[in-house]
Design a protein that fits this description.
alpha/beta, single chain, 7-stranded mixed beta sheet, globular
Amino acid sequence: MPQTLGELLDDPERMHHMLNRNAAQFAVLQAVNRLGLPDLLDGPTTVADLATRTGAHSDGLARLLAYLAADRVLDFDGDTVTPSPRTAALRQMGPAIGNDRLSMLAAFELDRALCGEGTAFELHFGQPPFEFLADSPADGENFARLMQLTTQLAERAIFANHDFGTFTCAVDVGGNRGSLLLRLLADRPDARGVLFDLPATVADAGPALAGHPLADRIEAVGGSFFEAVPEGGDLYLLKQILHDWGDAECETILRHIRRAIAPHGRLAIIERLVPEAMEPHNARDLDILMLLWTGKGCERTLAQLADMLGRCGFALERTSDGGRSMSVIEAVPV
């Protein structure tokens, strides 16, 4: 486990090195991602070739590549660059790296946000996150890809730790491009699914769904979960939706699901749970990012989710603890 801030403060010199390293890694990753280097590194090439293809100066580019080589991401002899399997992983992580840039820019406004001047994201970008993503096609597309990536990275833990049981119709509320729903239906040939998200998101998901073997079992529906959700499902999915919103907004979403769900249905909430103990956890890291992005959005403990569910007509039935990955919190209507 990485050292805690408390442990680092016991050794100021080590903390100084850590701050320098974090800043250097962030800078390198952002430059690599924005220059599109991972896509260009499909085989051995030279600094001169990469400089020509990216428009970067060869001397600075060589220093960046040397950093990546020293950090065991690729091989570099000062002239020839040779990719490794980790270079492919760097390409896969592109959406996360791109989104991290937005978080870091917003971070410079956190002090003002804490003093009540607005959310950090809106103070920097001039718009709430989802409006900004809608008006910035490149960032919006990257965010959609990030949501797919988070599902892919968490998928093994989700399906290894939780059995979603039998169902006839699963409704993925805020399901983005349908990655989770497709994985779920793959194991249940007799079931069907409904992908529900904002109309523009559903439209973007259309081409990918149309070419998928399970397309005939999925209905894509556009709308807002603050107004209503599709009715009649016996399994409703909420993956990393509630953490975007404050309690009042979450309860609106949950009450719409309560009205729509079949009497014998189940609700599966997929989130990272904050531990009750005061200990480092990636849910706490994500909680700070939610503070940056939305102000009201937050990661919650299991007890907090159980209380919220109870106020909205659900009873917590079981939880599959994902540890440092995502947990599945399953509830039933009462």
